[in-house]
Design brief:
about 400 residues; Aspartate Aminotransferase, domain 1; Aspartate Aminotransferase, domain 2; 2 domains; four-stranded mixed sheet; 12 helices; about 15% strand
C-alpha cells in the first residue's frame, strides 16, 4: 500500500522525478519531460530559477523564521513591493503558507468589518481546501450561476429587468469574492459587463471587492493579475502558487481603507509561519524577477503562440471541441464519451512522449499552464506532437 495520501482523482504518471530545471523534469532513468502545468500551477518562472535559489539560500542562512515579537526588514520590503502591484498605497498585507489560507484570511478580514452578513461569488469558483470560503454555507453565501449570462445579447448594463440579476440579494451582501478565470480549473471567464455591474452594485452598497488570484496571478493571464482584465479595483487580494514559485508562501493584501477598519475592529489571526522572512524574501524576488525579466509580456506572447497553434489544430481535426485561454492559462475540451476515455488516453500518450499536462478528473478537459519562462521551441514541439496524436486517435475511431 502506498504510504502517502495523494491528490484525489489524479493518476500518478511519473514515480521517480529526481531533478527539475526551468520547464523540464528529469526522472531517475534520465528521461526528460516538458512540464506544461508548472507543478500544481506554482512554478510561474520555472523550476529552480537561479535568482530564487540564490535568495532562498542566502535568506535561509540569515534567518528563515521569526516569532510574534520580532521581525526582519525583508518582510516589510516584500510587503511594500506587493502592495505597490495593486496600487494599495499605505495598505497592509500578511504572508502566509498556502493559497487556501490567503483566501480564507481575506474572507475573515471582510467579515470582520462588513455591515452585511452575506458574501457573493460565482457558483463555479474554487477557493481552497478549508474554511468558510471552501464550505460556503447557504445562509452566509450567495453562489451565482453566471452561465446564463455567458452569451447575453443585451447591450444594456445588468439590471433588475433580468431575472438572473434580480435574484442577487444585494441588500444583504457585504462582499464579492471573485475568481477571475480559473473556475475550479475549467478556465472560464465571466463576461466583463457582468463583473463590472456586480462590482458597481457592491461598491454602491458600501461592500468590499475581494479577488482570488492564487491561480490567475503573477503573470499567468498575460497581465500581472486576472482582475486587471476587468478594470475593477479590489479592496482585498489573495495570492499564492506562483508568488512563491514552488515555495509554500502566500499573501493577502488589503487597501488602506480596509486595513484601517480591520485594525480598529480588533481582528485577530495568528499562525506559526505568519510573516516568515524566508517566504517573504522569495515572494519579493519572484516579483522582481518577473518585472526585471519582462516575464508578463513574455508569457502573453507564448500564450498567443499556444492558442494560435491549438486553434489551427482544431481546424485540422475533429477532436477539439472548445478552447478557452487567457495568457498562459488554457483549457482544451476534447470530443469524448462520458468516461472521457480519449482524453485520458491522449494525456497518457503525451506523458510517454515527454509532455506533462493536467487532465481534469472525470472530465474531457486538458489544462495547460506552463511557466512564463517556457521556450518557444518547446511550445511548437508540443503542438506538433499533440496534432499527430489527435489525428491518430481520430483515425482510430
Amino acid at each position: 500500500m502506498d504510504c502517502l495520501f495523494r491528490y484525489p482523482g489524479y493518476e500518478l504518471s511519473l514515480k521517480d522525478i529526481v531533478r527539475a530545471e526551468n520547464c523540464y523534469l528529469y526522472d531517475a532513468d534520465g528521461s526528460r519531460y516538458v512540464d506544461l502545468e508548472s507543478g500544481v500551477w506554482c512554478t510561474a518562472i520555472g523550476h529552480g530559477h537561479p535568482r530564487i535559489l540564490k535568495v532562498m539560500n542566502e535568506q535561509a542562512r540569515r534567518i528563515s523564521h521569526t516569532g510574534f515579537s520580532y521581525t526582519s526588514r525583508i518582510v516589510d520590503d516584500a510587503a511594500q513591493a506587493i502592495l505597490a502591484l495593486h496600487n494599495f498605497e499605505n495598505g497592509q498585507c500578511v504572508f502566509l503558507s498556502s493559497g487556501s489560507e490567503a483566501v480564507e484570511y481575506g474572507v475573515r478580514l471582510a467579515q470582520a468589518i462588513n455591515r452585511r452578513p452575506m458574501m457573493l461569488t460565482m457558483a463555479d469558483s474554487y477557493f481552497g481546501a478549508y474554511g468558510a470560503a471552501s464550505a460556503r454555507p447557504a445562509e452566509a453565501w450567495f453562489c451565482f450561476d453566471w452561465m446564463a449570462c455567458e452569451n447575453c445579447a443585451s447591450d444594456r448594463d445588468c439590471s433588475n429587468s433580468c431575472e438572473h440579476w434580480a435574484a442577487i440579494p444585494f441588500d444583504h451582501i457585504g462582499g464579492f469574492l471573485f475568481e477571475p478565470g480559473s473556475s475550479s480549473g475549467l478556465v472560464r471567464f465571466p463576461p466583463d459587463k457582468l463583473i463590472l455591474s456586480i462590482a458597481a452594485a457592491i461598491t454602491a452598497h458600501e461592500g468590499l471587492i475581494l479577488v482570488n488570484e492564487v491561480t490567475t496571478g503573477v503573470g499567468r493571464t498575460g497581465k500581472w493579475f486576472g482582475y486587471q482584465h476587468y478594470g475593477i479595483r479590489p479592496d482585498i487580494v489573495a495570492m499564492g502558487k506562483g508568488i512563491g514559485n514552488g515555495y509554500p508562501v502566500s499573501v493577502t493584501a488589503a487597501s488602506r481603507p480596509v486595513a484601517e477598519k480591520v485594525v480598529s475592529s480588533g481582528f485577530k489571526y495568528a499562525q506559526s509561519h505568519q510573516n516568515d522572512p524566508l517566504g517573504a524574501a522569495i515572494a519579493l524576488e519572484v516579483v522582481r524577477t518577473i518585472d526585471e525579466e519582462g516575464l508578463v509580456k513574455r508569457g502573453k506572447e507564448m500564450g498567443v503562440i499556444l492558442l494560435d497553434g491549438l486553434q489551427t489544430i482544431q481546424t485540422r481535426t475533429r477532436l477539439i471541441r472548445s478552447i478557452r485561454a487567457r495568457g498562459l492559462m488554457l483549457a482544451v475540451d476534447l470530443e469524448d464519451n462520458d468516461n472521457s476515455d480519449t482524453t485520458r488516453a491522449v494525456q497518457q500518450e503525451l506523458v510517454r512522449k515527454g509532455y506533462i499536462l493536467a487532465r481534469r478528473p472525470g472530465l474531457n478537459t486538458l489544462r495547460i499552464d506552463p511557466g512564463l519562462t517556457i521556450e518557444k521551441r518547446d511550445v511548437e514541439n508540443f503542438l506538433a506532437v499533440l496534432e499527430k496524436l489527435l489525428v491518430k486517435f481520430q483515425n482510430a475511431r
